[in-house]
Amino acid sequence: MVIEMRGIKRIYKMESKQSEESVVVRALRGVDFSAGEGEFVSVMGPSGSGKSTLMNILGCLDKPSGGTYTLDGIETSKSNADTFAYIRNRKIGFVFQSFNLLARTTALENVELPLFYRRREKGESRDSAQARREKAVAALREVGLEKRLHHLPSQLSGGQQQRVAIARAMVNDPAFILADEPTGNLDTGMTLEIMGLFQELNRRGKTIIMVTHEPELAAYTKRIITLRDGELVSDRAVTGQRNALDDLSQWKQDHALLASASASANAAAQVPQEELA
Known about the structure:
By secondary structure, the protein is α/β, with parallel strands linked by helices. The chain is about 40% helix and about 25% strand. Strand 7, helix 6 and strand 8 form a beta-alpha-beta unit.
């Protein structure tokens, strides 16, 4: 298993303004969750269900209050800060809604950053500058941006920026990609492009965990887990998984028909009335 969680709890103690006693918030109440190599899982649930807390623990951004979390053979629950940093750099590829690209840095340089800060295992040598460059170029080629290597984020569309972010997440060949609302800032066409890219990466064997509140996006994954009140209440396979690129093709056809109909209506409206008599 790439991910193995057993009895994960997360409890927060918050100071109450009305009394001297602390308020206990049980964000996660003993969650069991596992994901194997090549899975594509969406994490769903209403606001306050524990999605963000689970994502933070999956991403080793936070530790559980109880339970165990084993990631690619590493038990993380009792790991120190250095081990956590190594896991985040080498085992997890993060993709965020807001892209989080460095504005004054090219696409190629953005993707190179995780390699520059690569956490090395004992006895592992540092990659040369040329090797880092080649790996970053290969990652950008894999997401279809080999002709945009030297473009700044401001010179790229939203979908292209997210592709750069995905290439950056993949460049260290992580155990899994953790995507948090990855299409939240994109329009319909770009959303379908990104979901098509995720599906292609998944077909090549990459494990992907995607946090989303949209059932339409979850339909492109292979499995859906649902949280409510800090508990995992549903874990089911997706029947009839949708193909994002097929839906993108249909969307483009529908969009072209609407544009054509609108243009015809505008042209008719501009014809002088005497010509219509």
